[in-house]
Specification:
The complex is a heterodimer of chains A (408) and B (272). Chain A is mainly beta and 408 residues long. Chain A folds into two domains: 147 residues, no CATH class; 191 residues, Porin. Chain A is built from five helices and ten strands. In chain A, the strands form two sheets. Chain A has an eight-stranded antiparallel beta barrel. In chain A, a hairpin with a 2-residue loop joins β2 and β3. In chain A, α4 packs antiparallel against α5. The relative contact order of chain B is 0.18. In chain B, a hairpin with a 4-residue loop joins β2 and β3. The longest helix of chain B is centred in the first third of the chain and has 24 residues. Chain B has one domain: Beta Barrel (Porin), CATH 2.40.160. Chain B is elongated and about 65 Å long. Classes of the chains: A mainly beta (408), B mainly beta (272). β4 of chain A pairs antiparallel with β5 of chain B, so a sheet runs across the interface. Chain A: It comes from Corallococcus llansteffanensis. Chain A: InterPro entries: OMP_myx_plus_Proteobacteria. Chain A: This is Outer membrane beta-barrel domain-containing protein.
Amino acid sequence: MRPFRSIALLVAAVPALAFAQGAAPAQPTAPGSSGPETTAPASPSPADPPERSRTQRDAPAVPQTAPDAPAQVAPARPPEEDDAEGTPSQPPASTGPTSGTAPASAPGDAPVLDSGEAPRTTDAQQQRLVNGAPLYNPNVNVHIVQKKRFADEGKHELVLYPGVVQVNGKFTNHAGTALHYVYHLQENFALQVGGQYNWYSDESDFNLELIDKVREQAQAASSLLLQWGAHAGVEVTPLYGKFAFFNNSLAQFSLVLSGGAGVGKTRHLIRPEVANEVDGQTYQVPARFGDTGNKFLGEVGGGFRVQFGESYAIRLEVRDLIYTARVDKVDGCNLADFESLEAARAANQPFEGLNLSGSCKVAKFDGVDPETKKNYREDIILGRDLVAEPSSDVLNNVSFYAGFSVLF
Amino acid sequence: MNARTLRVFAALCISLTALGAAAQEDGVLDSAVVRNRLYKPAGHPELSLSVGLPVQTHLTAHYFFNVGLAYNLFDTFALEARAGYAASRHTGLARSISESFLDREDKRVTDELEDLWQLNLHGVIGARWAPIYGKISLVADIPVHFQTYLWAGGGFGNLKRESVIQCTQVVDRAAGVCDNRTAVDDRGSATENYWVKESRVAPVVSAALGFRFFVQEKHGVRLELRDWIFKDSYRVNLLRDDWEAGNPTGEPAGSPGLTHLVQFDLGYTYSF
């Protein structure tokens, strides 16, 4: 379709060019101007100036004498660097000189400029082709999305996300680090496996504020914390492009979309950090978390991969880790277990011999911490509160992933 | 947490700098880049309309409707004035808290909750810096040109606050009713409620990270992640007996912090 479109545009442009040459001063032919994305300035007739597009630059100044020499062709780049938007890959038919010296003679059909000003494209720099396009030519607007300079197909990619920060934490906060491996089966399709460890996972200040001020808190299932997760899935890159930062640096980027499934380990806060006073001495007791088991994990995400060279890339992504949360056991103990433990605690009886479920880790609720003097039995009632009303929820842990990758 | 965050950012910056330097040494960065911009906004004023949806809601939810007028001093820099109205409401969570707290008489001294102010009318003036110009290949033959920008500015906003704790006239404590509804189950029939209300005008700061996609010559679509920031204000050490008798109680919090309203903005831009 692309050649047909180019031809159609060329045909459509013929009357305009004819009009421009007949009714207005001629303009230099712009190299590489035959592509659909290339815009040559309209004829700038001083008497009747057409409405000028914002995309067009100032019309070239028109000299009264013709150039002395035909324009020389600047060396074009290999085809793989040609315009991917429709600019023909063959070298331009005519371009400006590559040096700053005046041309020697004019061809018969050379454009004749009728003003006293020198053409703006006599400068060698302006005539230079960059990646097959006259990027410096002020008479030509060219915009290019090049072919991808770096092929991904068949490559391996190792991605380290040092910073993974939850951005939707209403009742929870997470921060961690993730490591992903991506194998690019095709240019736009890849397989991925990855793991994430949250070195910080705790209930949010908002939840603690509710507990403190209004004696309310999120249901256990809604404030479940994700300790780590592992998943496998696919990644697609439907879009690619490039951008310039202050016209100085070029970066190629791709939009990446990912999806997968896996498993994650969860926990729940049983008791926040407290001060324990024993015999007139105060000990700081760290927060205590209870194991709430492994949960199925789904993952969807999207973001940008900005590539630097063939081997390095930066990834900025947002991923949603979705996990089902049903809290009916804490540290393996269910409600019946907690009831038995609480009854034994109230009677100051040992826990040995209690009829508990096999998964209940009774040792976690018995004994005294030697450093903080905290009696673990005091946590039984807190654990029981978590499972007293079994709750379930589907949690979305949306996090911002910032990382870099190495391709090999 | 701050120290941790700083460490993470520092490590990230070092990593990114090293990568960029390595890439430039390899000569993979082309000095001639998106040189011939198809769209050059410099010197053009523009008018924009936008709608903002909350990224996350806690106790309040805001829906922003804004009109903006900007002038592009350069291709990469513009000044913009934005004004609008934010339709706001309490979330279901706030309503649930208010209803249950009426009956929680074991809590007779408490503090007001944070971040309950709702922004309504507002106006800000700011600067937009768009150092990144790029294009993406949407489909093989359809390039889309865009700018990525940072926006920062300030102004004033009209704020109102309705407590979810202080009810000056309890109608039905068990049912959590603090209004003049005609039936306990018919919340919609209420024409007036008795929660403590406040209002004020306060300075507002706004910052955004956005993308502007050019559509033809004069039109554009903007996607933004925008944060509206203002100073919070609430009272502490409130006595239930006092507020239920309709008397002012408590004192202002010493360091109430800032309220952030993070929005996802979708906008349209017309360039003159």
